[in-house]
UniProtKB/TrEMBL annotation:
This protein's UniProt keywords: Carboxypeptidase, Hydrolase, Metal-binding, Protease
GO terms, molecular function: carboxypeptidase activity; metal ion binding
Taxonomic source organism: Sediminivirga luteola
Pfam families: M20_dimer, Peptidase_M20
PANTHER family in the cross-refs: ACETYLORNITHINE DEACETYLASE (PTHR43808), BLL0789 PROTEIN (PTHR43808:SF9)
Active site feature: D69, E129 (proton acceptor)
InterPro entries, per the entry: Bact_exopeptidase_dim_dom (IPR036264), Pept_M20_glutamate_carboxypep (IPR017150), Peptidase_M20 (IPR002933), Peptidase_M20_dimer (IPR011650), Peptidase_M20A (IPR050072)
Domain Peptidase M20 dimerisation: 163-258
Protein name in the entry: Glutamate carboxypeptidase
Length: 360
């Protein structure tokens, strides 16, 4: 398994490079053929490559959800190469979530080796999760529509299974003003940067800590030259909420932001990207995971509710039984210290195999 993980880590697949994502998908397909004796369908949507390996002719009863795109740009391997030392794996994407993907393939192989048919199992590997799953959302929901269980192979920072996730919304708020020469006639301009600055506290104030809602201005940009009154300024906004009502409250408030200064206008793009993954969607599968773990002599899995999102938001939000965080145990998603704990890989793969068997 470590060799397979290394193979995938060393094929860099930043989400923005569609050719690289396609190359990574080809390597995953090769791995599936080698380990499972079956090759996946390649599904290209708006240029993004996804894989689906479905066993049998009927609808999927168990769906393993993976992605093989990463946040890491080309060349990251030059400074953060793959290593397997001191009990941990390191390298770009090793934790989020290439170890989980390899676990999916090997867990399916374990089930097959036990003599149980894989009919009804589907393994999805998408190529745009890190940028919002824009092209893969419908594929995931269609594949899982009749599933008895969706297991999301995202990693777990402390090994705890994820039973609830906040919903996510992403916006770009743009202030439109009017340019003028900053030295000769600044009064003839409408300073979009000043306007945006006045809106930032209003945007941040939409957070509600008691309700678990965060609204965070993130990437700021605007202006053209140092001697020009900026005609445009913009901010990206990340919003997380634990209920649909809160998502809708924030959405309405952002779209109703006022004119910040005379003459300036405001436009808002984006919106709610992922629904809330409610705990109710995971409770039955969590109980089953604890039963399977006891049968295997493993420690009882802990459960956690998190603010980060995954493709489990789509299936759990649709009411499909969904358990998340079944991939690698480790830490450092999207950070230089990203790593997966080697000793956890085999038992977590065995647990996944048991869960697959219980629902097929």
């Amino acid at each position: 398994m470590i060799a397979d993980i290394r193979t995938l880590v060393e094929v860099e697949t930043p989400s923005s490079d569609l050719e690289a994502v396609a190359a990574g998908a080809a390597e995953v397909a090769r791995l599936m053929r080698e380990r499972l004796g079956a090759g996946p369908e390649t599904i290209v949507i708006d240029g993004v490559t996804h894989l689906r390996l479905r066993f049998g002719d009927g609808p999927a009863r168990v769906v393993l959800v993976n992605h093989q795109d990463t946040v890491w740009p080309h060349g990251t391997l030059n400074r953060l190469p793959f290593t397997a030392e001191d009990g941990v794996l390191r390298g770009p994407g090793v934790f989020d979530m290439l170890t989980g993907l390899v676990m999916s393939v090997h867990a399916a192989a374990l089930v097959a080796q036990s003599g149980r048919p894989l009919e009804g199992l589907s393994i999805l590997v998408t190529g745009d999760e890190e940028v919002g799953s824009i092209t893969s959302r419908d594929l995931i929901l269609t594949e899982a529509a009749e599933a008895r269980a969706v297991y999301v192979m995202e990693a777990a920072a402390d090994g705890a299974l994820k039973v609830a996730r906040k919903g996510v919304a992403m916006y770009q708020v743009t202030v439109h003003g009017r340019s003028s020469h900053a030295g000769l006639d600044p009064e003839k301009g409408i300073n979009a940067g000043v306007g945006l600055g006045l809106l930032l506290p209003q945007i941040a104030a939409l957070s509600d800590p008691q309700a678990g809602t965060t609204v965070t201005p993130t990437v700021l940009s605007g202006g053209t030259t140092t001697n020009t009154v900026p005609a445009e300024a913009r901010v990206q906004v990340d919003s997380r909420a634990a209920s649909r009502a809160e998502q809708e409250r924030v959405d309405a408030a952002i779209r109703a932001l006022p004119e910040p200064i005379p003459g300036a206008t405001v436009t808002v793009t984006g919106g709610i990207n992922r629904p809330v993954m409610p705990r109710a969607a995971a409770e039955e599968l969590l109980a089953e995971a604890r039963r399977v773990a006891a049968e295997l002599g493993l420690a009882e899995p802990e459960a956690v509710e998190v603010g980060g999102a995954s493709d489990g938001n789509f299936t759990g939000g649709a009411g499909i039984p969904t358990l998340d965080g079944l991939g690698a145990a480790g830490a450092g998603a999207h950070a230089d210290h990203e790593h997966a704990i080697i000793a956890e890989i085999a038992p977590r793969t065995a647990l996944l195999a048991g869960l697959i068997s219980a629902r097929l």
